[in-house]
Design a protein that fits this description.
Layout (H helix, E strand, L loop, with lengths): L3 E10 L2 E11 L4 E5 L6 H9 L6 E6 L2 E2 L10 E4 L11 H11 L4 H15 L14 H13 L5 E5 L7 H18 L3 E5 L2 H7 L2 E6 L2 E6 L1 H6 L4 H6 L6 E10 L2 E7 L5 E5 L12 E6 L4 E2 L11 E7 L2 E5 L2 E8 L2 E8 L9 E7 L4 E3 L10
Parallel strand pairs: 3-8, 3-9, 6-7, 7-8
Antiparallel strand pairs: 1-2, 1-4, 4-5, 9-10, 11-12, 11-14, 12-13, 14-21, 15-20, 16-20, 17-18, 18-19
Helix pairs in contact: 2-3, 2-4, 3-4
Length: 370
């Protein structure tokens, strides 16, 4: 039993089921991120936790108390919205303490709580200002302060950074991470940004089409994606997914992949279970950063394979250079050092860390377990 339990929960609008049998248990102090493309059901699930949407079937419990049918005001949750939802005619201080005032908290206690939260979020200098005089990042801090001041059981964040510019988004991401580490609060956070999901969370639920595709730690999601959707959605650039055939060479399974000129290169697997796939087609999954040059290859890996192929495009990106080539008839991206001597149109010998490679069943698109 977790601190927040979502048990076999569904949501339907008429005959259309938009959330299918969601099972997630969140421990106290966890930072769970619901991530997925628009329309996948993540915000609907968040609204069901908040009580803003009814549950069609299943149960949601907070601290082992059934929340089905409980009014949002009785759930002891706090929500931070994408739009900030601040009262424009109130000062920052009034916005922060308004909820406490509605719950009958005496003024001295409200003032004390307001100053503690304002100090924590570094917005003490803004308490007498109206929201219209603040920047987007400052308004988001106020919205967070309004949630924090109530000391709820669960914090719910609905894409809180999507209205901010790129730099401010990174800054606020760091602030939210530091806040969670300091307070140890239980957070459920919705985003479509997979970088936010990977950097903020203790666990991630990747959603698509109303289903939870995979639930796990950021490392589990990134290194061992459950299926091709998770593999290609999580990570930037996305995981390369390359058509290949399994062959047995010297008693070891290898992936046979076609290079740009139609020749076949072999990449030995580290996972022995693929011997059962001898002679069969698979989809080979390799992250861009595991394809590099010999000097930059992972020295801890016991399985660095070499592949010579023609470079199609190079894209300098500051600390990295992204290199495109063709494998199995698909564009494949390698992530190289900024000073890697790679030229378009020239052949280059890539070092591939096959310890990090995964294989998918082309029929089901599910990862073949190691």
């Amino acid at each position: 039993m977790g601190f927040l339990d979502i048990d076999n929960t569904t949501k339907s609008y008429g005959a259309v089921e938009v959330l299918h049998n969601v099972d997630i248990s969140v421990e106290e102090g966890e930072f769970l991120v619901l991530v997925g493309p628009s329309g996948c059901g993540k915000s609907t699930l968040l609204n069901m936790i908040a009580g803003l949407e009814d549950i069609s079937s299943g149960e949601i419990r907070i601290k082992d108390q059934l929340m089905n049918g409980v009014h949002p005001s009785k759930r002891n949750i706090a929500m931070v919205f994408q739009s900030y939802a601040l009262y424009p005619n109130m000062t920052v201080g009034q916005n922060i303490t308004f909820g406490l005032e509605m719950h009958g908290v005496p003024k001295p206690e409200r003032e004390k709580a307001m100053h503690e939260v304002a100090n924590l979020l570094q917005i003490e200098n803004f308490l007498d200002r109206k929201p219209g005089a603040l920047s987007g990042g400052q308004r988001q801090r106020v919205a967070m302060g309004r949630a924090l001041v109530r000391n709820p059981d669960v914090f719910l964040f609905d894409e809180p950074l999507s209205n901010l510019d790129a730099k401010l988004r990174v800054d606020m991401r760091t602030e939210i991470k530091k806040l969670h580490q300091k307070l140890g609060t239980t957070i459920v956070y919705v985003t479509h940004d997979q970088i936010e999901a990977l950097t903020l969370s203790t666990r991630i639920a990747v959603m698509n089409g109303g289903y939870v595709q995979q639930l796990g730690t950021p490392q589990e999601i990134y290194d061992t994606p459950a299926n091709i959707f998770v593999a290609t959605f999580m990570g930037s650039p996305a995981m390369n997914v390359i058509p290949a055939k399994v062959d047995m060479q010297n008693g070891r399974p290898v992936a046979c992949v076609e290079t740009h000129d139609g020749t076949t290169s072999t990449l030995p697997f580290s996972q022995d279970n693929l011997s059962e796939w001898n002679g069969k087609d698979i989809l080979l999954g390799i992250r861009p950063e595991t394809i590099t040059d010999e000097d930059a290859a992972d020295r801890k890996s016991s399985n660095i394979a070499h592949l010579t192929n023609q470079v199609v495009v190079t894209e300098p990106a500051g600390s990295d250079t992204f290199v495109s080539m063709t494998l199995g008839g698909r564009d494949v991206i390698a992530r190289m050092r900024s000073d890697a001597e790679v030229k378009p149109g020239a052949d280059f010998t890539f070092a591939v860390n096959m310890e990090k490679a995964v294989a998918f069943d082309p029929a089901t698109e599910m990862r073949i377990p190691a």
